[in-house]
Design goal:
By secondary structure, this protein is an alpha+beta fold. The chain is built from 14 helices and 13 strands. A five-stranded mixed beta sheet has the order 9-10-11-12-13. The chain has a three-stranded antiparallel beta sheet with strand order 1-3-2. A three-stranded antiparallel beta sheet has the order 6-8-7. The radius of gyration is 22 Å and the shape is globular. The two termini are 30 Å apart.
């Protein structure tokens, strides 16, 4: 699955479950929740790095990101140099402690320094660990408590066979990343492809041109799309689509909001950071895919203290069959509740789909 979509975005929001656990559920159903941990910490099939955000990606793609690691090394250098001027030898001491004690979290450092402020006001130790991680000298060996990064030397995290692979040129790496993005997207504009891995437009455009020339991408037009599009060679148009999934805000299918609106006609926005009185649909809203259409959006929450999956609001998209959507959604919520080991489902009376959903649940 991860080979097909190329990445799974990681996010700290745990309203339903950790965000990176939801894309596999959307595609595989009630999979064993240990799989991601095993894939990252035991089998090393996945590694964590910056795709379009912090993401889990197939380990085979690790060499494709060495150009970004080099760029990140330069980007972080100013902050690390400042710390080294203020505290000579500190960076080497942090690296030595990781070498001796890793994998460790920033909170485990003997001298982690003091935080400079809230949120991203990291202490010196965290800043150094992050800079070494983004530069590729350290890697994430796992996470503690579901989210705190554990850092270790890259040679102890990434399999030796992967590290031994030759480093592709930046042009070759971009070409392969564009190929992965276009395959994951199926049909996409240039901007869609750029955004998938946050690639620089000029290099990605050159890669698109090369892939068109060799037949891996086909130029196409899409009705009502303003910009030209590209179809991945080999992409199949099925006779019918039987998709049924609740999509997390960071799912690869919906994280690009402009593309969602062009593909599905849904203007989808995350309202986590919107003050409650100004929210239109709710705090953690997940679109519901039925067939090949986004038919509803659900504000969902796992109330673990009551072992209840709570639908705080349920809104249907225009011109959908409410009983049909409610029946399919109720069945999917039952599957999710069982997967999360929640015994009950509660549907609160907010939204034009809530009454039909409550009756079907």
């Amino acid at each position: 699955m991860v080979d097909q979509i190329g990445l799974i975005q990681i996010d700290s929001v745990n309203t339903v479950v950790r965000a990176h656990e939801l894309p596999p559920f959307a595609r595989l159903g009630a999979y064993p929740r240990s799989l991601i941990k095993e894939g990252t910490e035991r089998h090393r099939d996945l590694f964590e790095y910056w795709g379009h955000a912090a993401c889990l990606m197939p380990i085979a793609t690790h060499p494709l990101w060495r150009w970004r690691m080099e760029q990140m090394r330069e980007r972080w250098r100013r902050g690390v140099d400042r710390i080294e001027r203020e505290r000579p030898g500190y960076v080497a001491a942090v690296l030595a402690e990781v070498r001796d004690r890793g994998p460790i979290a920033a909170s485990d450092l003997t001298d982690g320094g003091k935080a400079k402020g809230p949120w991203w006001g990291w202490a010196e130790g965290k800043t150094v660990l992050e800079s070494l991680f983004w530069a590729g000298e350290l890697s994430v060996a796992g996470r503690r408590g579901g989210f705190e990064r554990l850092y270790d030397l890259t040679e102890r995290v990434v399999p030796a066979a992967i590290l031994a692979l030759p480093t592709p040129s930046i042009e070759d790496a971009h070409r392969e990343l564009v190929r992965i993005a276009s395959r994951a997207l199926g049909v996409a504009t240039r901007k869609d492809i750029f955004n998938y891995f946050y690639l620089r437009a000029d290099r990605a455009a050159a890669s698109i041109a090369e892939l068109v020339e060799n037949g891996d991408l086909l130029p196409v037009t899409v009705d009502d799309w303003r910009d030209p599009a590209y179809l991945a060679a080999g992409a199949k148009r099925p006779r019918r689509v039987d998709g049924r999934a609740l999509l997390a805000p960071f799912d690869p299918l919906v994280f690009d909001r402009d593309r969602v609106e062009r593909l599905f006609g849904m203007r989808y926005r995350i309202e986590i950071y919107t003050p409650a009185p100004k929210r239109v649909y709710g705090y953690y809203v997940m679109p519901f895919l039925l067939g090949d259409t986004l038919v509803a959006r659900i504000d969902l929450k796992a109330d673990r203290a009551r072992a209840t999956l709570v639908v705080q609001a349920a809104h249907a998209e225009p011109r959908v069959d409410l009983p049909v959507v409610a029946s399919a959604l109720a069945e999917h919520l039952q599957l999710m509740a069982g997967w999360l080991e929640l015994g009950d489902i509660e549907v609160r009376p907010r939204g034009d789909l809530s009454a039909a959903l409550a009756a079907a649940s």
